[in-house]
Amino acid sequence: MQAVEIKKDIYWVGAVDYDHRDFHGYSTSPEGTTYNAYVLKDEKNVLFDTVAGECAKTLLCRLAKVLEPEKIDYIVCNHMELDHQGALQEIVARTKPEKIFVSQTGMKSMAGYYPNTDWPVVPVKSGDKISVGKHTIVFQETRMLHWPDSMVSYIPEEKLLISNDIFGQNIASSARFADEYTQKEDYEHRIKEYYYNIVLPYSPMVLKTLPVVESLDIDMVAPDHGLILRGEEVGRMVQRYRTMAEQKPQRRALIFYDTMWHSTERMAYAVASGLEECQVPTRIMSVKQNHHSAVMTELADCGAVLCGSPTHNNTILPLVSAQLTYMKGLKPLNRIGGAFGSYGWSGESPKYLQEALKAMKMQLPCEPVKCAWRPSKDDLKACHALGVGVAKALIEACNG
After folding, report:
1. pLDDT at position 97, please?
2. At 26, is the pLDDT very low, low, confident or very high (cuts 50, 70, 90)?
3. Counted domains in the chain
4. 99 plus 159 within the same structural domain
């Protein structure tokens, strides 16, 4: 298990988990993930973050290729979530560091995960800096990106930002750098997947933080998940984040739905025909066949979102309800919405869907469409008209 030198005397010593699929219990990582940790060799040797608990031995093995673990003087915990600090107790026991640096808010997280420990913890705030010999470490809090305790570490002498969860992706690969990763479309998809399922609700904080990042002299960003960015890729990633955080309307639509006897499914395709007639590319996703995080990832490129469900027990089907709850928590902005559904007896589902989209502050240019039993030709025409109406509103928003 080799370490990788990313800058002179700075090494990646993390772990790649090719088999990890359930990311944090709410999203997916279809290709696995990477837990990145870094070590700086200097008069004081510094370990930046650790790894998930089950990967502690991997970290120690890679670290030993660089220097004896017992020679670590400082540990920096940029973020206390357990995919980064699950191995902390084992690493502290092995290295016995002189100091452990954590944000002031991170003190609470550390005490919650590791109570009754007598560790040499030093809280830091934005602008605090330490000298470790030839190198300086400057700390910058990045609260709510994506936890209250999050911070980043900047090493000005190397123009290196160790960015914690910001700019990460769930990619498991032997490549360490983005410019070495040959699957470019997959890389772009994983960036959107990561942002739209983890960072999206904190987009206002992203827009406040990006100018701080841009004010630093940086030619490499080392996140705690995925590939390391260097050269021109640093600027490209900053611009991607700005674009995703601004959430300007895009001329593309997403339809998600569930169905019992295919009636709502037929309605979904009729709605799509109206959108496509207006030259709005559309993706249809069944919530039975697609994980809720995959639906959110698709939303990254869509300025319109329409949802459909049959009426079930006077409300909507459970998977649609779960998708809407998940989506609402991620706080998407500036979307055009629409709702539709079939029913046999009472027909409340489209009203509930419309209310759910309204609660997300979506613009709703059309009344919801519902049909009894199987959709007739007139019902399908109404669905087509819903698609046209949403498409026109979306085109206007994109051109505004």
Report:
1. 98
2. low
3. 2
4. yes
Q: How far apart are CA 259 and CA 319, in angstroms?
A: 10
Answer yes or no: 180 catalytic: no
CB atoms within 10 A of CB 42: 19
Annotated catalytic residue within 9, 24, 276, 348? 24
| Domain of 82, in residue numbers | 4-246
85-139 per-position pLDDT tens digit? 899 999 999 999 999 999 999 999 999 999 989 999 999 999 999 999 999 999 9
83 as an active site residue: the answer is yes
Residue holding tokens 């593309």?
252
Q: Is 181 a catalytic residue?
A: no
User: For the domain that residue 376 is a member of, what is the CATH number?
Assistant: 3.40.50.360
Residue 113 designated active-site: no
Residue 42 falls in the annotated catalytic set: no
DSSP type of residue 31: T
Long-range contacts formed by 350-356: CB under 8 A, 24+ apart: 352/315, 352/316, 353/307, 353/308, 353/309, 353/316, 353/320, 353/324, 356/307, 356/324, 356/328
Catalytic residue among 84, 135, 189, 225: 225
- Check: CB of residue 175 under 8 Å from CB of residue 181: yes
Integer angstrom CA distances of residue 179 from 36, 190, 265, 326, 375: 17, 15, 42, 33, 51
The model carries a pTM of 0.94
CATH of the domain at 33: 3.60.15.10
Given this model, what pLDDT does residue 25 score?
65
Concerning whether 20 is annotated as a catalytic residue, the answer is: no
Active site residue 165: yes
* pLDDT score of 21: 64
Identify whether the C-beta of residue 39 lies closer than 8 Å to the C-beta of residue 59: no
